[in-house]
Description:
This protein is of the alpha+beta class. The chain has seven helices and 13 strands. A six-stranded antiparallel sheet has the order 1-8-5-10-3-2.
Amino acid sequence: MTALFKSPTLQKELEQNGFVKVPLLSKVEVAELMTAYQSVALEHEKINIPYITTSHSNNSNLITFVDNVLQKVMAPAINNYLINYNLLFGNYLIKIPGNASETSPHQDITFVDESKFTSVNIWVALQDTNRENGCMYFLKGSHNLMPTLRPTHSYPWPYEKVTDEIKQRVEAFPAKAGEAFIFNHAIIHGSYSNSSTQPRIAAVMAAYNKEAELLHYYLPEGEKNNLQKYKMTKDAFLYFVKSQPPAKGIFLKQTYFEFKQLSQKQFISLTKERKGISNLVNSVSEFFKRDEL
């Protein structure tokens, strides 16, 4: 796997656990991003859902503005850690107070050929986060459980039948303002509901190996197995409208892909020996066959 981190220690941690926690932004940089957020807070919060990202707006002007702000502040800090990479796009993340603001266990969509390359999110806290206001949680090593493709916008997630078991095994990771989690898009993660009285604000930027081709997989509504594969650019993602095929993506082909779902027994079998998790992929290769896409 092509390395993303300058530090071999952090690279090993990313490969084993699926994420690392690092000090990313100074107090001054955090304040700059919070001030910028206040200028667009109404544009975000009028979306009126419990967990808001800038991309939910489907407003290319707002998305581009936020991306430019985040790139200006976050890019130099990210460069202290990563090597031979490209940055993709940035979003503000707003968790509104209320039980409905929980982000359930999930994996992010597929951006690259994960048999060769890695794509990550750089998620940075702009306020101190904890269980009360909705900190992050991860299932360590879950990016190695099995290979799969993760399209938009709705598909049979392999772990849908075992979300209760996942919640019992995840670990909570509070963060101080300016601290960041750099995590593989394939790791199972989420965040707790915000039971405080104020919105929880964070920011995120995606990155990937420079040599990798950007991809997007789309499952049309009503289809169960016929995946559409697109070649993408940053511009194509900035103008991407949720629940629609990427208008600026280049269609490559449509291929049959069989989505399998783990039973409770299979999930427990896969996770009971975490130290040997990298070898467990082979044990399910027959059950989870991946088409050459």
